[in-house]
Design brief:
The protein has 370 residues and is α/β, with parallel strands linked by helices. The protein folds into 2 domains: 2-252, Aldolase class I (TIM Barrel), CATH 3.20.20.70; 304-368, Arc Repressor Mutant, subunit A (Orthogonal Bundle). The protein has 14 helices and 17 strands. It has helices at 27-40, 62-75, 95-104, 119-124, 131-144, 162-173, 196-202, 211-228, 246-252, 279-287, 300-311, 328-340, 355-359, 361-368; strands at 2-6, 8-9, 21-22, 49-54, 83-88, 109-115, 149-155, 181-188, 231-234, 237-239, 258-260, 265-267, 271-275, 293-297, 318-319, 344-346, 350-353. A 9-stranded mixed sheet has the order 9-10-8-7-6-5-4-1-11, covered by helices on one side. A 3-stranded antiparallel sheet has the order 12-13-14, with no helix packed on it. Helix 3 links the parallel strand 5 (83-88) and strand 6. Helix 1 (27-40) runs parallel beside helix 2, helix 2 runs parallel beside helix 3 and helix 6 (162-173) runs parallel beside helix 8. The longest helix is centred in the middle third of the chain and has 18 residues, at 211-228.
Amino acid sequence: MLYLHIPYCHHKCTYCGFFSVAGRRDMDTYVEALCRELVARCKDEPLKTIYFGGGTPSLLSSAQLQKIVDTIRDNYDLSKLEEVTIETNPEDLTTAYLEGLVRLGLFNRISIGIQSFSDRELHMLNRVHDGRQAVQAIDNAVLAGFRNISVDLIMALPGQSVDDWKKNLDILSSLNCFDAVKHLSCYELTVEHGTMLERQIDMGRLQIADDDMATAQYQVLQEWCAAQGFVQYEVSNYCRPGFHSRHNSRYWDRTPYIGVGASAHSFDGHSRRWNVDDVNSYVESSLQGDVVHEEEILSAADAYNEYVMTALRTCNGLLKSHVSEEYRPFLKERMARFIASGLIVETPESYVPTQQGLLHADGIATELFV
């Protein structure tokens, strides 16, 4: 697995807690630094998935993307490559830009950050695009040749009713090119520390949706997905059968991966590494041959806690065989009350969250930590 972090955005959205910077200043230099790190950290093992995330990777020009793609091809074994995804925003997805992505011959999956089809909601989130551009972006992607499209939507927005949320879903399913939308990521709005959204809520300008509203919208989502042939495989992710995100799914089962770019994280099975979250420091250190980063060797308890947290967010649940023997009695004892309350179903091989259990996955996981 290979992850590339492109930290640039047109501007910061109100809710975004990811590392990103507004504008396109010195992007060529950043791309050079990214390519240097790609070369320095390549492994002999063949890649199965590649993911361009951000930030907004679709701010990269065709020439910048070509340089990155050429570096990957020249240094990595792509003989077993299954999936290559690029995250994009609707305002960038002109027909010409999308045709350029196709000509690169690497990307077979595109993720479009729609977030909402409502102009009012988009304005509140400080998004650049409007509802018309959101629809056009999906159309353009299909016209360019993409047949594996993922769409991001956010629910439980301030002031968003159940009908408002349903309208977003209905607009999506009414598109002529809806068959090409193979994956849907629907996130409940969360208030990240230090964001503009947090300040707006603290000042009383916006009010976050309560639990009842969030639950009602989640139920609408479940019913809509079932009617449209989408299956849930993780708390916030749905797909047509066979079109789950292979890359993200491997995060959840703790598959090792390389992360390159400012603030990018990596995992080798025993330790985690994260690059400096400052573009200037990242670029300077990468060009000098050694990216500034920190590293942590995981204890057995850390590994157990990480697995519990990620596995309980998936519909496959937590495999008992993936838990070390020393923690199995503890896990069995702590799981008992969640099984009794109907949030978890135990099978001979696993602990699987029910539909209601998925709503409380993070809370359940914290009760199981050592």
